[in-house]
C-alpha cells in the first residue's frame, strides 16, 4: 500500500509539473504572438510614413502614428525618428503582455520590445504604369515645369519625346498613355523612340486627364494626372533610335494642348514614392521606392 501511495504522489507531482509547463508554454506563445503583432505594426507604420518622404516629414510622422493606432498599438508607447535627409524612418516601441497561467506562480506579465527602420531610395525598375514619354535626365527641383511631349516642329528630327514601350504605332501609344505600360523597364535598358507627333491620340489623353479635377497644389496619390516617366540620356536622335534609360521621375500633368494639329504635354516635377525595385547605389532622380532595412 505504501508503494501505491508513493506512486500516486509521484503521479500527482508529475501531472502538476506537466500542467505548469503547458501553462508556461501557452503564456510564452502569447508573448511571441504579441511580439510579432508589435513588430508588424511598426513595419507597416514605417513603410506608410515613407510615402510622404522626402517632402513632408511632419505628415510622415502623423501617418505613422495613425497606422500604429489602427493596429492596436498605443502611439504614446512608441518613438518615431526621421533622418536629417528625410529619407529614413525609425520606429521603436513596447507593449505590455499579461500572463494568464503563470500568475499561479506569482508572475504577472512581461514587456515586449520592437524596433524597425524603413528607407526610401532610387527606383531601379518600374513594372506597370510607365507612360510612353521620355525626358532627358536633369537635376529637377520640386515644382519645375517640364515639357513631357514637344509640339511638332519643336522636337529633334521627328522625335517629340514619345517612346515605344512594348510595341510601335499609335494604338500601342494610346493604351500606354492612358493606362500605363504593363511591362517592366529598368535603369540600363535601351528603349526605342517613337517618331511622329501622335496628335491624333492627344484628344483621348486630354479627356482622360481633364476628368481629374486635382491641381498641382492639391492632389492625392490616386490622381490620374500623376505620371511615371523614364529619364533617358538623350532625345537628340534621328528617326526611331534606341536611347538609354538612366532613371525615372514622377510628374503631375497640368496641360495637354492641341493646336492646329500640334500637340504638347506639360507637367510639374515632384518627388514621389511608388512601388518598384530599389537600388541605393543609383543617382537620386526624385522617384523612390521604400523598403525595410532593419
TrEMBL record:
Pfam family, one: Tad
Residues of the Putative Flp pilus-assembly TadG-like N-terminal domain: 5-49
InterPro entries in UniProt: Tad_N
Domain of life where this protein originates: Bacteria
Name under which the protein is recorded: Putative Flp pilus-assembly TadG-like N-terminal domain-containing protein
Natural source organism: Caloramator australicus RC3
Taxonomic path: Bacteria, Bacillati, Bacillota, Clostridia, Eubacteriales
